[in-house]
Amino acid sequence: AKLSARFLLGGEHGRLKYPPPDAHSPVNECLLPYQTLSIDPCFYFGEVHKAVVAGPLLVEDDTAFVPHPLDTSSITLAGFIEQVRDKLAENIHEMWAMNKIEQGWCYGERRDDLRLVHPCLTSFEKLPPSEKRYDATLALQTLKTILGLGYHITMDKPPSRIRSVRLPNDPFLQSNGYKPAPLDLSQVSLTIKLEELVEQLAENTHNIWARERILQGWTYGLNEDQDLFRSP
């Protein structure tokens, strides 16, 4: 935002009077890896009087984000819809993996956002339990949300075989032998009404994701940090 700020930290010889809370993230670490903190001498403070804090006006909409996904606890799914859940969860992962690789990510045992390495670029069966549970929860909540928004789910006679997208080895084949295989949905077209549903599902999906992360102990941060459980 091209803003500048001055901090008068007080304390004795530069030491803080009150220590930071546990698991705090210093300003210089918050800026990484995209920026490096630069501190220059400044001896002019303007008309700042004692015990007066000068700064920008209060931001009226600066409220904490609290995810509120649609409450689907009272919605039950028909048996034939339940059967779709597991396949939907797997396809959600396959689509995610395909998009990640297209963005330049590759498989690695430990996540590294700078080198674009992610351990979840593997088959659905080999995902960590927390990630597999998230995909399954997302699939279940997506189906329930469709009903909760007033839509109805019916099943047509399925084709004899639903094919998967045949992706080239380069760049999709990973070092662990995994290659995404999402379902080929190129022949499926959506009505205008269903396009509206897509927008509603997208927002609700984000709220589900955020709620799950918060329950796992994640908090907001400018950059993704797996160790400190922070996410933008």
Automatic annotation (TrEMBL):
InterPro entries listed in its UniProt record: Ryan_recept (IPR013333), Ryanodine_IP3_receptor (IPR015925), Ryanodine_rcpt (IPR003032)
Assigned keywords, A-Z: Receptor
Signal peptide: none
Gene Ontology MF annotations: ryanodine-sensitive calcium-release channel activity
Hydrolase found in the keyword field: no
Superkingdom assignment: Eukaryota
Biological process terms in GO annotation: release of sequestered calcium ion into cytosol by sarcoplasmic reticulum; striated muscle contraction
Ryanodine receptor Ryr domain mapped to chain residues: 65-155, 178-230
A Gene Ontology cellular-component term: smooth endoplasmic reticulum
UniProt keyword Membrane present: no
PANTHER family linked: B30.2/SPRY DOMAIN-CONTAINING PROTEIN, B30.2_SPRY DOMAIN-CONTAINING PROTEIN
Protein name: Ryanodine receptor-like
Organism: Hirondellea gigas
